[in-house]
Amino acid sequence: MSTTMASDISDEDILARLQQVLHDTFEIEPARVTPSAHLFTDLELDSIDAVDLAIQVQDMTGTRIKPEDFKSVRTVGDVVATVKALLDR
Q1: pLDDT: is 82 or 42 the higher one?
Q2: Which of 2, 40, 48, 56 is the most buried (most CB within 10 A)?
Q3: Exposure b/e, 13-52, CB count within 10 A at least 16 = b
Q4: Which pLDDT tens digit goes with each residue over 4-63?
Q5: How far apart are CA 84 and CA 65, in angstroms?
Q6: Topology given in CATH for the domain delimited by 29-87
Q7: 87, 9 contact by CB (below 8 A)
Q8: Phi and psi (nearest 5°) for 75?
Q9: Backbone φ/ψ region at 33: left (φ over 0), alpha (ψ -120 to 50), beta
């Protein structure tokens, strides 16, 4: 089974996948992974974790992520929007 996401995926599907990734990778409870959750203050990720997350998103989308695509990402909602934008390219 491929982990690449289809371009018709919903924001809720992306959020659910992010909850799983953040739980598996960083042991963050899925209930804490909400669209308004701030990656650095609420979920306590650091810059190294953000790079790991970008790699996970790259794996999810099957699309190479440029640093500028992820530079303005601050919240889980921003990650969802970035994933959506990458899938819609």
Answers
A1: 42
A2: 56
A3: ebbebbbebbeeeeebeeeebeeebebeeebebeeebbee
A4: 445 578 999 999 999 999 999 999 999 999 999 999 999 999 989 988 998 988 888 888
A5: 12
A6: 1.10.1200
A7: yes
A8: -120, 165
A9: beta
